[in-house]
């Protein structure tokens, strides 16, 4: 789940909400390399390398330029060496004259390579009104020292100026030359120079938006995210038949950042990035007689899925090495667009020969490497990067109020067996979770050499079979991520948990609605077939032959506080929801038939392991193996043994009264008296939290 503020959580689940859409598009050669920045002269703090870094504001540091330094505490003081960490862009050494003109033109430029065609660019001056902007300036696009496009602007007042309607082949330089600034005694300041189309589209431009995110933690398949973006093309900027239109600049692998935000109570908007999606295989089409343009985009996994792997001379030997090699297939600019969990990055992943991977699809190699290490791949929505990581057990709280219909539950597919063909030619069979199942899976993975490696893969695969699937239709929450273990509240007492494997975000008529989700509540029976739950103190002895347990210790939930009484001035405040108990969960190594003392009190204790050493989970701890949820906050009717916190009491209603005039026997007014129309309500007591439990899982026999 993407981290969110309390204000966001309140707004996204509110009875009424305002959801907004934003897409940031950058149409430029995806292989472009920025080679440098330069200027005619530089102030001591200027940073030419920041002319092309997508940062559009500069920090306020005091200088002696006329009327620039406000003594209101909003300016910092430069250190002696003028080196600061904040974004500064380029500032020229010379000052403008009394009328803003420069004695000699001030200029800044960027150089780049590997751009086949340029049809647009933007120049960004400061947005801070104290800095001013370039009033008169000239822009040039050059190739090999020769200018092929130039334009002079006079009387400018904008901080961002875009240029298009030209075509330059193999450009390598964009230069901005300023002759007059909008304020006297000011330095020329250029914040960004961005080649290509770089713009922000909102719901005013985007006519339709349909985003799909999906994943397969078993690594038996490689589903990927897609995004359909339909935008207004009334101006025909993107006209395939136009020689001067921007259509020539559209290339595969160009990225579009997509965001969904919700307006908060204070009027601001908190956006969540729902993905970075890329042009792929001519994924565009015009519609409505060319008045709209539709982009069919894929995430980074979609770019890799069907691409042929070009094996290097020396093959990688670790998980991170393989992932780095895969994203490098997309070009130099993709080289850092991946993350691998630090605990898994250096795990050995080796192929028996170069021939075993040469010519294979990048998507298959990605699946195989993850399968061999007990990880799974996803496109991280927040960063757009390929993320390789283990499963996690946290997610969102989903209540019936945010669903269109009651959750639909159906049986998840079972599996009879897994048949591994190891690299040495031997066959290794792992039993599934149902002998009556008709489904058998055969796996040929060049990274699986031993039975132990196959067993690692089997554990992850079988965690996706058996159990149930939940299908939800609701209002949608862009903070939810594929892989989350969500807690679905079914009524005031019960909830169930399941792993999110599919979700959609659909805008219809400017409203986010009808969002589909699929959650997997697999039993994971191969990994842990036996389960014991202890809700009372006692002791337990591990079965013979078991040396490993997975243990969950759930502490006592907190009480909800009482609601305040109302009075004639205001309604009473609602009580505070009690937090769920602390939860400690981990795999432990034990001695055979070891006996553990169990204590269920404020803390849940299993031998030396205690919930007191755990942490609280904002939406409760989700046990994906059983579908149970523990330690939720604010439960109206908590059940003993869950460690749920109680719901806070309701505040009493505000009393209502009016005043009547009191008259004496002669009919003269002598005062007033209060008459009660509605008695102030009493606050209701908070619900008590309940004790927790200890849950113990142990392994099925690890034999074929």
Description:
There is one protein chain. The protein is built from five helices and 42 strands. The strands form ten sheets. Strands 1, 12, 13, 14, 15, 16, 17, 21, 22, 26, 27, 28, 29 and 30 form a 14-stranded mixed beta sheet that branches. Helix content is 7%, strand content 39%. Among the domains are: 29-195, Galactose-binding domain-like (Jelly Rolls), CATH 2.60.120; 530-651 and 687-698, no CATH class. With 704 residues, it is mainly beta.
Write the topology of this structure.
Layout: H1 6-12, E1 19-27, E2 33-39, E3 90-95, E4 101-113, E5 117-124, E6 134-143, E7 146-153, E8 160-169, E9 173-181, E10 187-190, E11 192-195, E12 197-202, E13 206-214, E14 226-232, E15 255-263, E16 269-287, E17 292-298, H2 300-305, H3 319-328, E18 338-340, H4 362-373, E19 376-379, E20 386-389, E21 397-398, E22 408-411, E23 417-421, E24 427-431, E25 440-444, H5 451-462, E26 468-474, E27 485-489, E28 495-508, E29 511-512, E30 515-521, E31 530-534, E32 538-541, E33 548-554, E34 583-589, E35 595-600, E36 604-606, E37 609-610, E38 621-623, E39 628-630, E40 656-663, E41 669-678, E42 693-698
A few lines on this structure:
7% of the residues lie in helices and 39% in strands. It is mainly β. Among the domains are: 167 residues, Galactose-binding domain-like (Jelly Rolls, Sandwich); 134 residues, no CATH class.
